Amino acid sequence: MNQLSEQFNQQQQPSTLAHASSSREMEEVKGQIFMARQFPRNVFQSEQRILDACKRQSLAKTAVYRYPRGGAMVEGPSIRLAEVLAQNWGNLAFGVKELEQREGESVALAYAWDLETNVRQEKVFTVKHSKKAGGTIKKYDDPRDIYELVANNGARRLRSCILGIIPGDIVEQAVEECNKTLSGANKGPLKERIANALNAFKNQYKVTQAMIEDRFGYNADAFTEIDYVDLIKIFNSLKDGMSKPEDWFDKNANKKSGSGLGEAFQEEKGSKSEGKSKEVKSKKGDINDEPDAEGKISADELELSFEGS
Fold first, then answer.
1. DSSP 8-state class, residue 112
2. Phi, psi of 100 (to 5 degrees)
3. Nearest-angstrom CA–CA distance, 168 and 156
4. Which terminal CB of the chain, N or C, has fewer other CB atoms within 10 Å?
5. Mind listing the pLDDT tens digit for each residue in 3-41?
């Protein structure tokens, strides 16, 4: 009789643990809803916090992606901006959960839940434990690689869920504020920033200046602030994996002649540095003399904007 009782208790134990876990999660959700109702968001304060965050250069540079599709240009807020929107909007639960891991694939859930209004967006998706690169399929079996693969795929779904909860006019204001930050609060001269951008495209994605000029339809020395902002959005799109270089640029454009702005700027910078060095040597008798700051690269914000992921 005692053996039968032990077997029965062992069979019931897994269901008891599952029930306890479910009850704990339910209590946590109830607690979140209670706190959200006790301390509801102030829409005007939330909006102001979002706009203040969009005035940061580090956020504005990664806030918007852009890529071509069907002959048109698609532009929207990136996952980084979506996270900032959710954090500052308040009383919003969001994230990505791996529901199940099977042989060769994972099933995951991305969700965003407004605890005040009980509006919820969620997306269930399947991620294959493989990736196609260079015409070959690479399979992943390391747990860390699988985790990063699921997280990267979940980021796009999470962004969609968050943007389905946050009011559209708030999102539009945030994007507009980020564009203002990019175009109006840069430190270095435009020529210097564009030259750094051209070098970043060449070094990280093998996109030459001729290819970029062919894309815009005129030489880089005629680029404006608006063109510079477009370059940042394209770079963000490539960095986030939303598009590929061939979606934007024609490789055959390398054969065409360009303005040579990037190379000319580097040569000009080198000659100025050499001139400054000679000037310092000629004045080495005076310990208070320092080299003139003219000619130094001071576009720190560009170097951050065009760095690798």
1. E
2. -155, 145
3. 18
4. N
5. 545 554 555 555 565 566 667 777 887 888 888 888 889
Distance, in Å, from the CA atom of 97 to the CA atom of 228, rounded to the nearest integer, reads 37
Give the ranges where the chain is alpha helix by DSSP (H).
Answer: 2-38, 43-53, 57-60, 79-89, 143-165, 168-184, 190-205, 209-216, 225-239, 245-248, 261-282, 300-305
The pLDDT tens digits for 223-247 are 877 788 888 889 888 888 788 888 8
Give residue 187's pLDDT: 57
Alpha carbons 56 and 176: distance in angstroms, whole number:
13
Q: Say whether pLDDT at 272 is over 70.
A: no
- Assign 65 to helix, strand or coil: strand
Q: Where do runs of H (alpha helix) occur along 39-142? A: 43-53, 57-60, 79-89
3-state secondary structure of 136: strand
Q: What is the pLDDT of residues 188-200, one digit of tens each?
A: 677 888 888 999 9
Task: Classify residue 134 as exposed, middle or buried by CB count within 10 Å of its CB (0-12, 13-18, 19+).
Answer: exposed
Instruction: Using DSSP bridges, classify how beta strands 119-128 and 130-133 pair: parallel, antiparallel or unpaired.
Output: unpaired
119 φψ region: left (φ > 0), alpha (ψ -120 to 50), beta (else): beta
75: helix, coil or strand? Answer: strand
Rounded distance between C-alpha atoms, residue 234 and residue 159, angstroms: 18
111-124 as b/e: b if 16+ CB within 10 A = bbbbbeeeeebebe
Count CB atoms within 10 A of the CB of residue 84: 22
Residue pair 178/229 in contact (Cβ under 8 Å)? The answer is: no
The answer to whether the beta carbons of residues 150 and 98 sit under 8 Å apart is yes
Closest residue by Cα to residue 69 from 230, 210, 237? 237
Query: Do 35 and 44 form a contact (C-beta atoms < 8 A)?
Result: no
> Which of these, 137, 155, 173, lies nearest to 46 by C-alpha position?
173
